[in-house]
Write a structure and sequence with these properties.
The chain has 5 helices and 6 strands, in the order βααβαβαβββα. By secondary structure, the protein is of the alpha/beta class. Helix 2 runs parallel beside helix 3 and helix 3 packs parallel to helix 4.
Length: 175
């Protein structure tokens, strides 16, 4: 009795056959143009919804803080303020600006909660060792804004650990 939930990746558009492939997030981020970002993901949402997709694994609101990390192209910037604004614009594009999602939009999943872009040694799954203050001000801020101001519908926990506890089971982080 549980309905199927069709989803796709959406780093630079809906990852489905025939959809538009937009520039990577790092390229979109360099525009500093929130209206453009919202337009891009409004188109992507229409394409995804027309293919029967209900949820997207996007946007990535990680900070690209270590150039050695192999996933910097998925991030908008290294700056938490800029990432928060562009992340909110992407959420508005995918989900719309209302409290509920209409027939032209789909739900988002913010990625990767949290600290994924500044792990030890730039390694993808390495621990994140930052003070709580730094972690909150830098890495949690874009997620907070996307949830509180743009009504992001879901969040994907990152693969790393913070403060010695894997993020998937870190009660302090998840609550």
């Amino acid at each position: 009795g549980i309905p199927a939930l069709m989803f796709t990746e959406g780093l630079h558009g809906a990852m489905i056959p025939g959809s538009t492939s937009f520039p990577q997030a790092i390229g979109l981020g360099s525009t500093w143009d929130t209206a453009l970002i919202e337009q891009v993901f409004t188109v992507a949402a229409l394409e995804a919804h027309s293919a029967g997709i209900w949820q997207v694994l996007s946007p990535v609101v990680d900070l690209a803080r270590d150039p050695r990390w192999g996933r910097t192209e998925e991030c908008y910037s290294e700056d938490p303020y800029l990432v928060s604004r562009l992340g909110m614009a992407a959420v508005f594009g995918w989900q719309g600006r209302g409290k509920t999602i209409d027939e032209n939009h789909i739900a988002v999943t913010l990625k990767h909660f949290a600290g994924h872009g500044q792990s030890e040694g730039g390694k993808n799954l390495a621990p994140v060792n930052h003070s709580e203050r730094y972690f909150r001000e830098m890495h949690l801020y874009p997620f907070e804004m996307a949830v509180k101001r743009a009504n992001a519908q879901s969040i994907m926990a990152s693969y790393n650990e913070w403060d010695g506890i894997p993020n998937h089971v870190n009660k302090k982080l998840l609550t």
